[in-house]
Sequence to fold (369 residues):
Amino acid sequence: MITFIGSPEKSYFAESVAQQYKEELNLIPASSDIMNQERRILAVPCSYMIFDLDQYTNPPYVLATEILKLKNSNNAKVIIFAPGMSEESTVIREFKRYGINLYIFTLTLGERKEELRAILAGEKYQKDDSAIESGDTQKQVIIKTNLKSIAVAGVMTRTGTTTQAVQIVKYLLAKGYHACYIEANQSDFVKRIAEWYSDEDCQIEERLDARGMKQIFKIRVNGLDMFCNMDFLSEILTLNYDYFVYDYGVYTSRDFNKISYSEKNIKIMTCGAEPDELDQTKNIMGNVFYDNIHYIFTFVPEQDQEEVRLLMEEKADHTFFAPYVPDRFLYSGDEMYEKLFPLEQKQEEEPNAKKRGWFLTRRRKHGKV
Fold:
């Protein structure tokens, strides 16, 4: 018996390999807290437990501790499913410190199957770039190893998290880099745009998920590529982008993925200057797990900015103040982004067509506002 703990949509590779080895596959529904799954995991004896790391909001040491308890209870081998994550990441190093040594890091469906087969056979996985499994639904491509990822989250609601994520993508595009926005939260912001904008202003690209259901894969609005389904992340990461900007939503929400956020190359937290917002910011500053974060304050009058910077103490050099942005899809061109990401111009910018603002473009697909 193989137990897969996580979203059923991500378990397809394991189901295929289990059938080959004449093993049953037991599915445990995803949860942000591993402790909610423990009784169901232990209810069915198994030889292997595959944990989808992306679902959890528990700190790494809590995850490692609880997984070891489960391993000792049912004497099953532990496999960590962490596609796209580096072996040298903080989380993986913590897991290895606890003696957890079996991982699936690959991104494509065929590679995941081969990696799992190697684990079940007790062999070391050797990637074969020339192999293309005929049954795969994803193309065999070369995965870039230098993916540049930017994570944006907010200390609380209404701190402009999505606006800043979009503005960062717009800045990167203005610099000549190929960048996209990824909705890594449960707000359904991208889907609402797809419903609200006219077909002329919003191009929608769809894909079939693991169950054969049609889902939104990408929308393109005002020159911006936006993705909203994390089940397609492995395919998204094979696309030809220089930067992937993730919008993780609100830090205090139950579905905030602390592990995934912490592993990104550049981490940004949007903040406000209200007392409760400052208190939450201080809590994050005191957490060593989030030591290397840039803080962007929004809606702070210029005359109050120096006082806020002083309150940030040792993080003052990592503190920035965002301009007022009435339309998140129109790049503000503020010098703050140059300070935050000092990049050379990659190529000549193409002349920009005149963009229409939010109130002019948000026409319903079946009539005007």
In short: The CA atoms of residues 206 and 310 lie 48 Å apart. The two ends are 55 Å apart (CA to CA). Confidence is low (pLDDT under 50) at residues 129-146, 353-364.
